[in-house]
Structures are given as structure tokens and as C-alpha cells.
Amino acid sequence: FHIGEREEKCIIEDIPSDILVVGNYKVQLWDIHTHGFLESAPGLGMFVTVRSPTAEVLLSKLYGPQGTFSFTSYLSGEHIICFQSNSTRLAVIAASKLRFHLDIRVGEHFLDESAIQAKDKVNEVTDRLENLIEQINHVMKEQDYEREREEKFRKTSEATNGNILWWAIVQTLILISVGIWQIKSLRDFFIAKKLV
């Protein structure tokens, strides 16, 4: 996506608890002379701020024009990840566009391929097995989180349906009582005017 030089952009990621999140990014600066984006943005860094669902800051750090950040969620819910350049130019002068490449991986597991190749086949199989078990645990956490969200949504839906039912009953009783009152008032009116 594109971002202004002094602009802050935020994205929202719905993340279960106790999950490692790794993000890689790269910033390219617009070059007026070539009318294209430079391969990198020398001297330009990015502030990365991550907030938990309770608005607690999990990560706030200045990185270079490209980098990797990571954090572990301790609460499940919507985490806000914000990016802003460290440009010190005035807002009027800092009209440059930045191209921002972002790759976020939720539940990332680090594997050192060179270390795996150096070990014998038994250790490689053991490492792969441990990685698979870790991935299975991640999938189970993700399923538990989705199950919790579904249960919460179901309870909210049932409560809303119950409220709608009671509101419909109250409206029906009001309409019936108003109808009875109108019939009684008309009957009394006709009797008073001696039309009946």
C-alpha cells in the first residue's frame, strides 16, 4: 500500500492468545526525478507500534527502511499494528509518497534450515516432528479461539432474539389495549349522541 511521508497507517489483525506474530516490511521512497520508487529509502525509518485489544502497547520501536518485527499476543482479539515514518521534514515539504510492502505471519515458527541440514537424519526428523507438533498446537489454539468467538456470538444472538420476542409481545398488548379503548370510546360516544 502507499502511505504519506508523515502519515500513520494502522491495520487490524484478529489474533488468538499466546501466538507469535512476525512481520516483515520494506519501504520505498518516491523519486521525483525518475518518477518511480527507489529500491530502498535511505535515512528513512519506520516507527512500529502494536496495541493489544485493551489498548496496551505491546511493541513500540523504530526500525530502518526495511526490517522484521515480532511480538507475542497474550490476549485474544483485535490487535492494532501502526506504521509511521520517522521523517523530520515539515508536513508541507514532506509530500513524498512511500510504497510499503508488508508481510505478516501469525503463528510463525522459526526454523534454521542450515542447522537442520548440518544434523543427521534422525535429528532432522525430530526437529520436523517438533515443528509439526507446534503447528498442531497453533491450529488447536486457533480453533479454540474461533469456538469462543462463535459461542459469544451465539449468546449475543439468543439474547437479541429474546429481546425482540418480548418487544413484539409488548407491542401486541399495546395494540390490543388501544383497540379495546377505541371501541369502548366510540361505543360511549354513540350512546351519548343517541345514535345507537
From TrEMBL:
Q: Which GO terms describe its cellular component?
A: endoplasmic reticulum membrane
Pfam families reported for this sequence:
EMP24_GP25L
Q: What is this protein called?
A: TMD11 protein
GOLD domain location = 8-104
Presence of keyword Nucleotide-binding: no
User: Could you say which protein family the record assigns here?
Assistant: Belongs to the EMP24/GP25L family.
| Stretches assigned to coiled coil | 115-142
Q: Which SMART domains match?
A: EMP24_GP25L (SM01190)
Keyword annotations from UniProtKB, A to Z: Coiled coil, Endoplasmic reticulum, Membrane, Signal, Transmembrane, Transmembrane helix
The record describes its membrane topology as: Single-pass type I membrane protein
Query: Where, per UniProt, does this protein localize?
Result: Endoplasmic reticulum membrane; Membrane
Task: Spell out where the chain crosses the membrane.
Answer: 164-183
